[in-house]
Design goal:
The protein is an all-alpha fold. The chain has helices at residues 2-5, 20-32. The chain contains two helices and no strands. The longest helix has 13 residues, at 20-32. The chain crosses the membrane at residues 21-38.
């Protein structure tokens, strides 16, 4: 998890509803599970 926290957070203040590490982690899990889009 600490390696994911090393990425700079380039989101605007409005876009920081969720923790960046959680967003990256769930995105990786979704891709590995076969997700092809965010919808």
């Amino acid at each position: 998890m600490s390696c994911l926290a090393a990425f700079p957070d380039r989101r605007r203040a409005e876009g920081k509803m969720y923790d960046q590490v959680g967003v990256i982690l769930f995105s990786i899990i979704a891709i590995l599970s076969g997700a092809r889009s965010y919808r």
